[in-house]
Each structure stands twice: as structure tokens, then as C-alpha cells.
Write a structure and sequence with these properties.
The chain has 376 residues and is α/β, with parallel strands linked by helices. The protein has helices at residues 17-29, 69-78, 93-98, 100-121, 158-177, 199-208, 228-241, 258-268, 273-276, 295-298, 308-321, 357-361, and strands spanning 8-12, 34-39, 59-63, 83-86, 126-132, 181-186, 188-190, 213-216, 222-223, 225-227, 247-250, 256-257, 277-280. It has a domain at 8-195 and 224-250: Rossmann fold (3-Layer(aba) Sandwich), CATH 3.40.50. The strands form 4 sheets. A 7-stranded parallel beta sheet has the order 3-2-1-4-5-6-11, with helices on both faces. α1 (17-29) packs across α7 (228-241).
Length: 376
């Protein structure tokens, strides 16, 4: 299989978690590529995630939104983009229950803006669209074989529905306009730089502070977790060896219950799981299991390198050193965070006048949690 060689790559959402690891890897490993990254610096993005790349001459950062057609067209033209890796999206399932409109806007409309710009531009040679295993919906608990790339899409929550909708647009533009598209669908990812609304960093920060680890429902839900650097390598391989018009699952065969994740983190901090884990109300719908068949990606030469125990320890050590990376994350550490539905109440707002942090953020959740330096 001929190896694709890009020249000018646009990575959207690159100050976020997964995309920053991909961007840093490509900038470092391919000095002959120009890497242009676009990010609107939302609450879950951080320019510090891109610090390893900022001194390289082949790196350029643009602050902006994929939902801006004029900006996207301008970047494609002025930077002579030939490759797009589209990571930008709202990704936290809990938030999608609280503000599905924002998910449709970012994930569906934002993708459509990019696709339409590519159609008009006419010079794109690869469009790698990043999706999720959640588009398949719930995998049967007893299934011995995971969902493969041709499995039916049956999303069950607003987030996964928005990602499935975006995928349909990508496929349609590929067929209608011969846009050279590739789609990936990935398992959960964990590691350094991840915003702590997600399970692993959230539990690590709570455990660092001696706070309870809240588990939705009974903790029996099963997920698969991939370390961020392994995922970055997968995208490197898909970029260079992936076949246009194809879908690639990015995942691991190792599965863990949410309860197991919490227990493993308790042990890392020498905490008693029976005293630390707290079961809370489940979210409106919580898929019991996602399970992927990843043989297609493995045939391209990729394999998981980082075992869960090693990756979890690396992640814990990073957060111990960088506990203040994200600043005040108290709203994200709540049992049921709603980051997108929280808002600053203006002085002339009819509900203004409250003095608590919850009033100022427009949230009515339980007591916020901080991570004081004294605990570290």
C-alpha cells in the first residue's frame, strides 16, 4: 500500500486532549509537514497542551471556530491545506443531556462547514474524520465479537447521535463530491492533559483530595480504555496508510467496569474502595457496554503498546505534577457536571443576586470540590 505524504495539515480542535497528542506527535516526527492547528479554546481546551510544538518552525496555531465558514475557507486557501484531521467536537456525554443544541451545532454543523469548504476549495487529498465507538450503540453483554466497521449505527444519546449525524455527512460528501474521506471510531482515551470531566482524570483528582469517587448507577457498565500516545500513533498510521472511503475502529480488547476503574485508582492512592466509592443517580441512559473489532486497523500495522496498569500510573503521576493545569475544575468534579449549561449570570439577569459559586455559574449541583496544594 502506497504511503500518503501530506504537506499542509489542518488539525481542528488541536488544543483539546486527543488532538493535542496527535498534533505534537506529527510536529515532532515530521519536520517536512506544516501543521496548522485550529481551536476556539473552549472550556476543555488548553494552549498548554500544545507547548511541546510551539517552538517548532512547522507549527502554527489559529484561534477560531470550525463553525465559521469564512475563517475555514480563509485557512484552506492561505495555508494551501491538502489534509484535514477533524477532531473538533463537544464530546462529554453528560453535557449532551444538558445542552444537546450545542452538540448539534459543534458536531454536525461544524463538520458540515468544513466539508462544504473542502468541496469549494477542491484541493483536499485526505479528510480524516474522528468519530466514536458510541455511534454503534450498546453492545450485547454476552457478545464475543465486537462491532466491526460495517455494523449498524444505533446511537443512544444526544452526543453519539450528533457524531453519527456528522459521519453521515462525511460519507455523503465522499460519495457525492469524491471528497477523499476516512473515518475513525475510537474507544475511550485517557492520559495526561485530559480535562477532568472525564472519568479517569476526574477520579484521580478526587482521590488526590481524599474525596469520594461518584459512580453513576451500580458501576457495572463496561468500557475499554486506550492510552493517549497509543491513540496518537493510531492516527499517525491512519493518516499515512488509511484507505480513502474506509472506516477504522481504534480500540483495545481489554475491558473494565467503571467500578474496576475506581477501585484501581483507589489502590494507587492507598484508599479503601469501600470507603471512597460513592454510588449516585445514573444518567438518563447509560450504555452497558461498547466493544470494537479492531482487526482492520491492526492490518495497517498498529497495535496497543501501553497496558492499563502502566498507562494509569503514568496518568496519575502527571496529574500529581500538574494538578493545577486546568485551574478551577470544581464544576467538572461534580457527580453530574453540566459544563455547557453552566453560565455566568449577568448583573441584570432576573436570577442575579446570589453569592455562592453555584449561583455565579448558574448551576444547582452539590458542593464544588477543589484540589488544594496541601494535599499533594
Amino acid at each position: 500500500m502506497a504511503k500518503y505524504k501530506p504537506k499542509n495539515i489542518l488539525i481542528t480542535g488541536a488544543a483539546g486532549f486527543i488532538a493535542s497528542h496527535v498534533a505534537n506527535r506529527l510536529v515532532r516526527n515530521y519536520l517536512e509537514y506544516r501543521i496548522i492547528v485550529l481551536d476556539k479554546l473552549d472550556y476543555c481546551s488548553n494552549l498548554k497542551n500544545l507547548d511541546p510544538s510551539r517552538s517548532f518552525p512547522n507549527f502554527k496555531f489559529v484561534e477560531g471556530d470550525v463553525c465559521s465558514p469564512d475563517l475555514v475557507k480563509y485557512i484552506l486557501d492561505t495555508e494551501n491545506i491538502d489534509t484535514i484531521m477533524h477532531f473538533a467536537a463537544q464530546t462529554h456525554v453528560d453535557n449532551s443531556f444538558g445542552n444537546s443544541f450545542e452538540f448539534i451545532k459543534n458536531n454536525v454543523y461544524g463538520t458540515c462547514v468544513l466539508l462544504e469548504a473542502c468541496k469549494v476549495f477542491g484541493k483536499i487529498k485526505r479528510f480524516v474524520h474522528v468519530s466514536t465507538d458510541e455511534v454503534y450503540g450498546e453492545t450485547d453483554e454476552n457478545a464475543a465479537v465486537g462491532n466491526h466497521e460495517a455494523s449498524q449505527l444505533l446511537p443512544t444519546n444526544p452526543y453519539s447521535a450528533s457524531k453519527a449525524g456528522a459521519e453521515m455527512l462525511v460519507m455523503a460528501y465522499g460519495r457525492s463530491y469524491d471528497l477523499p474521506v476516512i473515518i475513525t471510531r475510537g474507544n475511550n482515551v485517557y492520559g495526561p492533559h485530559q480535562f477532568p470531566e472525564k472519568l479517569v482524570p476526574k477520579f484521580i483528582l478526587l482521590a488526590m483530595n481524599g474525596k469520594p469517587l461518584p459512580i453513576h448507577g451500580d458501576g457495572s457498565n463496561v468500557r475499554s480504555y486506550l492510552y493517549c500516545e497509543d491513540v496518537a500513533e493510531a492516527f499517525e498510521i491512519v493518516l499515512h496508510r488509511g484507505e480513502v472511503g474506509h472506516v477504522y475502529n481504534v480500540g483495545t480488547d481489554e475491558e473494565k467496569r467503571v467500578l474496576d476503574v475506581a477501585t484501581d485508582i483507589c489502590r494507587l492512592f492507598s484508599l479503601d474502595p469501600s470507603q471512597t466509592i460513592k454510588f449516585v443517580e445514573n444518567r438518563p441512559f447509560n450504555d452497558q457496554r461498547y466493544f470494537l473489532d479492531t482487526q482492520k486497523l491492526k492490518k495497517l500495522g498498529w497495535s496497543e503498546r501501553t497496558k492499563w496498569e502502566n498507562g494509569l500510573r503514568k496518568t496519575m503521576e502527571w496529574y500529581l505534577r500538574n494538578f493545577d493545569w486546568w485551574g478551577d475544575v470544581s464544576a467538572a468534579l461534580l457527580s453530574h457536571p453540566r459544563m455547557l449549561s453552566c453560565h455566568i449570570i449577568e448583573k441584570d439577569h432576573p436570577n442575579a443576586g446570589g453569592n455562592s459559586d453555584q449561583d455565579r455559574m448558574g448551576c444547582d449541583e452539590e458542593e464544588p470540590i477543589s484540589v488544594p496544594k496541601s494535599r499533594l
